[in-house]
Specification:
The complex is a heterodimer of chains A (256) and B (279). With 256 residues, chain A is mainly alpha-helical. Chain A is built from 10 helices and no strands. By secondary structure, chain B is α/β, with parallel strands linked by helices. The chains are: A mainly alpha (256), B alpha/beta (279).
Chain lengths: 256, 279
């Protein structure tokens, strides 16, 4: 405990950690003015209709992003999984299959490492402002993420059934559908539903760089220091996250 | 399928380099359509022998020939085709828990089906009659659409054996088919397997702990001890003295219940747990 404090002191100095600045009179003035605008939240019907439309758009961006990510992740995961190796059944894999598997893995790692915010910035410049950029950014990042974790789930499960099918001459894809998939389906769906929920929160953040949905509206309102609009949007966003969390938990229980 | 083993040795994939091989300098010839039972105390290398014949384990010494061809000289694709012509059943039934019995049984047809046909069969099983007939031999046709994890251990073992009947294999390699079955079911199961093998002229090599059953149903008995062949005799020539010599120091296995399933140890790399990433 003491060692942690001692070690963090130079780091705090380096990052100019000065939280007491918040309480200086000049910053307090702006802070109180901004926060005062939060109450009451704006509730006229036109604004609320727009808000609900944007919320629905956020959910749609997340869902289409995850759907595209799924299409990207499944072939990559299947290619990279070692338990489907036929040459690997009796010892070390042959060279070519090993290289192919490594490449698929590398592609997924690259896709996953670049944060979706950066992809969104790039796509906003390429395809313009709006939901398309958000969908593509989520598709690429989450494709890598889903693929990597699908591969890990498939490899960490019990592979006795799959091995038995491969040993008796079944093809790789057949062994996947008759052995690997039924063995791990619960864990795979659970993770996918969890990632869909993460994608909803992601797409709100992506809206800040122009990728559409509730995030974009929040950025516009914040720029205009319109506290009442921002607070209304924050409340709706928190409700959305809570609802997505609830639906995701229910779906995961139902599919388990 | 004709099987010829010439001076073969094999070791478990996860054993140390200097450890004794599980099967040592074994020579064996099984003609097409012949039925052989392999008996011996636990640790004698019976499972390793089956895996060796099934091309699931590479021999460290010696030559294996299936129908006169060494499968290890073939390309991976051709070797996989050869594997499609045999059927290896392990002691532990390889059935995914949430799968339906009919899908598990029809998985025996996979080597001879195209990928599209097997995918279609997942949604609407196309071989219901075939599966029902196979399960009927083991008195399980009423469990056609049950989930595997709702079955008892003995029923699961019989479902795994029914898979053999559905496959078009010309070589059956069955490891301890009766370990979880009571005497009546065991008789039924072994009779069904023997009948199916002789009907299609398939070679049948079966490891058994139930010596009495082996002597009753199989014309040729091979005894293994410590990885070496102790005897290779006709069933009528196997005397109680020979059996006692085979099971010396392990006589409880000769008369008692079958010991725990001896699986080939899995590869040395332990499966790593799936990491859930939060961002």
């Amino acid at each position: 405990m003491i060692a942690a404090l001692v070690l963090s002191w130079p780091m705090l100095q380096l990052t100019e950690f000065t939280p007491w600045v918040i309480f200086e009179p000049s910053s307090l003035k702006y802070t109180t003015r901004f926060l005062a605008g939060f109450f009451p939240p704006k509730t006229d019907s036109e604004f609320l209709a727009m808000l609900l439309r944007e919320t629905w758009r956020t959910v749609a961006i997340a869902t289409s992003g995850i759907a595209l990510a799924f299409v990207l992740a499944v072939p990559l995961a299947l290619i990279s999984v070692r338990v489907l190796s036929i040459s690997g059944l009796t010892g070390r894999m042959n060279a070519l299959p090993a290289v192919v598997r490594f490449t698929a893995r590398a592609v997924m790692i690259v896709l996953r490492s670049i944060p979706e915010l950066i992809w969104a910035l790039v796509f906003v410049r390429v395809v313009g402002l709006g939901p398309t950029a958000g969908v593509l950014a989520i598709a690429l990042t989450y494709g890598g993420m889903l693929g990597k974790v699908y591969a890990e789930i498939l490899e960490s499960g019990d592979n006795h059934a799959t091995k038995a099918l491969l040993q008796n001459g079944a093809g790789r894809l057949q062994s996947f559908f008759y052995g690997l998939l039924p063995q791990n389906a619960a864990e795979l769906t659970s993770y996918t539903v969890y990632r869909w929920e993460c994608a909803i929160r992601s797409s709100a953040v992506l809206g800040f760089v122009g990728a559409g949905g509730i995030g974009q509206q929040m950025e516009v309102s914040m720029k205009m220091f319109n506290g009442s609009e921002v607070s209304a949007m924050l409340i709706v966003f928190m409700a959305l996250v809570w609802l997505a969390d609830y639906v995701s938990a229910w779906l995961r229980r139902a599919l388990a | 399928m004709r099987v010829d083993l010439n001076d073969c040795s094999a070791r478990h994939p996860a054993s140390k380099i200097d450890a004794a091989p599980a099967v040592r300098r074994l020579s064996l010839s099984v003609a097409e359509g012949e039925q052989v039972a392999v008996i011996g105390p636990s640790g004698s290398g019976k499972t390793t022998l089956l895996h060796l014949i099934a091309c699931a384990l590479r021999p460290s010494e010696g030559v294996l020939k299936l129908n006169g061809v060494d499968p290890w000289t073939l390309s991976t694709r051709e070797l996989q085709l050869r594997r499609g012509e045999l059927f290896l059943a392990s002691q532990v039934p390889p059935l995914p828990p949430r799968q339906r019995v009919i899908t598990s049984v029809l998985a025996g047809r996979l080597p001879h089906e195209s990928v599209m046909a097997s995918l279609k069969s997942l949604f609407y099983p196309t071989g219901i009659a075939v599966a029902e007939q196979a399960l009927g031999q083991f008195d399980l046709s009423d469990k056609l659409f049950e989930r595997v994890d709702r079955l008892s251990g003995g029923e699961r073992q019989r479902v795994a054996l029914a898979r053999a009947l559905v496959s078009k294999a010309s070589l059956f390699l069955i490891d301890e088919p009766l370990s979880a079955l009571d005497p009546t079911r065991a008789e039924e199961a072994i009779a069904a397997l023997v009948t199916a093998a002789s009907e299609r002229g398939a070679t049948f090599v079966c490891t058994l702990h139930q010596v009495a059953t082996a002597l009753k149903h199989f014309p040729r008995i091979i005894g293994l001890r410590d990885g070496v062949m102790a005897f290779d005799l006709a069933a009528s020539a196997v005397t109680p003295e020979i059996l006692r010599a085979l099971y010396a120091n392990k006589l409880d296995e000769l008369t008692g219940a079958a010991p725990e399933p001896e699986e080939l140890p899995a590869s040395t790399a332990a499966p790593s747990p799936a990491v859930m990433h939060c961002r």
